[in-house]
Predict the 3D structure of the following.
Amino acid sequence: MRRVKLEYSVATAVEPSARVMETAAMFGLGVDETRSIRVVPPCEIPLPAGGVVFVTGPSGGGKSTLLHLIGRHVEADGARVIRFEALPELDDRPLVDVFKTSLGETTALLAMAGLGDAFVMLRKPSELSDGQRYRLRLAQTIDLAQRESSGVVILADEFAATLDRQTAQVIARNVRRWTRKTAHTFVAATTHDDLLEALEPDVLVSKGLGDQLQVLTRC
């Protein structure tokens, strides 16, 4: 099992107001407005092969920063990272033509992403709804991962956030089933904790505001 040790702080410099400077001068004090804010406290996060890591917490709590740190750490170790939101655009051809796999493999891939309807598979990416395009990126992610000879780490920020909640539950279960059959690690981050049961994460990371962070693993 791969493990990453993380910690991240940022230094902020705030220009003191004229009133702050005047008050400090009255009492003979110096003013130092440079502060260090700890966004991610020292922690160790397991990345199980064939497993799911679920990062949850409020908006602005640092989930995206945490995913960025995980990706940077994994890449520094020489492993492959696939960032869900940074995938290249697919050719604007019918969906059954955009993947370099057999027709059977392509239809199975699209079905896993909730795009198994025949009429949808014959459409082009530009003809899809926003939710369908999101699911197409999921199919693209799985296709890229399956081409790798060893396990990769997939980072999905705001996972399924744009989908209706029923569809999000279905997609989350499909991701869980697929991950169990592979050596890949799927790291999903979202404010929607309603996906906890569907994803059945091996590792749950609760990222609160400031440096609040808790890592729970399955026994």
Observations:
- The two ends are 14 Å apart (CA to CA).
- The chain has one domain: 44-217.
